[in-house]
């Protein structure tokens, strides 16, 4: 039998009071003594409905908001179908209603439907952590348990390993004669110098980078982050064992000369590169470009004060790790025009606002922003190497490291992302404020940059590294971009400073 909602005493409509979990007539104070006690007890047993908020409620139509909260009431009452119907009705009114999409994905039992609603959120707001976390579970990158722990976690525990960690190796041997493979400087192909075998040309890397948010959520769900000092290599050719620094990805066995590329270590402490940019500048060309730079006017001027003539030099090719970021950002620019004013008997220049600030918003995109992930050479040098062009980027294969050794990243993606954000913010402040500040002295410009989406890849980029010894015994490091030929010459240092490369 249904409950009568009209008060039998005064005839006014009764309401359900959430504070007392009872039905009451606020006109005369009447409370039914029978009929509602069981319902009130049921509601008390369930507890109070969770407080669910809407982030941008001022941008959602009132009718859609009402339907969203109705869905929450239906869900609290155990009626999932009615909740889904109300959420769909809210989405029919406001198609980009993020919270409605999120709750539909939470309630639905259909994986395809879940994925569709989560994709609708991430297409508009790639920084929505709840939607991204649920998508990672659907994609199998996180379990529900890992996601829950990661949501409550402050990140993995950092642990340092004091002994060499065992590794598995990916060899670069010829499949026909088992000879050492190398890279042809003219064709760029991987080939065998003994039997003439030529490996298939690598595929150009076209995959999009991983979402920074997704990687950060995965990282938070990890219990431990290992910091490795050395890795233990067991040569497959001669059986020799030795420890190498954690910064090396590939090396040659000093006993048999075989090339060895690390596939992974026992703790899974690092990620393999996504792609490799092959060398285009030969050693001879790099040496010529470096000599031209050292003969430049600026270097000759330095020679007037110090003896910077080169006595000896070494030049070697390396693959250095770079985190490469793509980003979309929103730039908010505020402009305040000021005027001059006089005070008292004299003229005093003051800055008095003549109008409220004017705010403008702009959208910008950044592609292939590189951050070197190696400790050596220094970032002061690697930042000056210029851009690398991803049109030459090949899918990573250990065979591509057959000739030149490669370093492994020592700066992780999360630290590199902060560096990339800083560079982007600096570039935006320069672009949107410098010219106007120079032309109009009585204006105040503020520029704020909000990161909307960021993705990243790990690439190996070619670099020629020269160690120069001057006649006064000072040491200098110079770099040549192995793809474009850009030359960077470092400052002279005293001999006690040692370089790892």
- Rg from Cα: 32 Å
Beta-strand residue percentage: 25-35%
Tally of strands: 20
Intertermini distance: 85 Å
Helix proportion range: 25-40%
Distinct helical segment count? 12
Class by SSE composition = alpha+beta
Overall mean pLDDT: 84
Q: Can you tell me the overall shape?
A: elongated
Main β sheet profile: 9 strands, mixed
Low-confidence stretches: 341-345
Short descriptors:
five-stranded mixed β-sheet, Serine Threonine Protein Phosphatase 5, Tetratricopeptide repeat, single chain, elongated, alpha+beta
What does this structure look like?
There is one protein chain. Strands 7, 13, 14, 15, 16, 17, 18, 19 and 20 form a nine-stranded mixed sheet that branches. Strands 10-9-4-12-11 form a five-stranded mixed sheet, with no helix packed on it. The chain is built from twelve helices and 20 strands. The protein is elongated and about 105 Å long. The chain is of the alpha+beta class. It has helices at 37-46, 62-76, 80-93, 98-107, 111-124, 129-138, 144-152, 212-221, 283-294, 297-303, 379-382, 413-439; strands at residues 15-17, 22-24, 157-161, 165-171, 181-183, 190-192, 210-211, 224-228, 230-234, 241-245, 250-252, 259-265, 275-276, 310-339, 352-353, 358-372, 394-395, 443-470, 475-481, 487-489. The model is unreliable at 341-345 (pLDDT under 50). Among the domains are: 1-37, no CATH class; 38-152, Serine Threonine Protein Phosphatase 5, Tetratricopeptide repeat, CATH 1.25.40; 159-276, no CATH class. 28% of the residues lie in helices and 28% in strands. The longest helix is centred in the C-terminal third of the chain and has 27 residues, at 413-439.
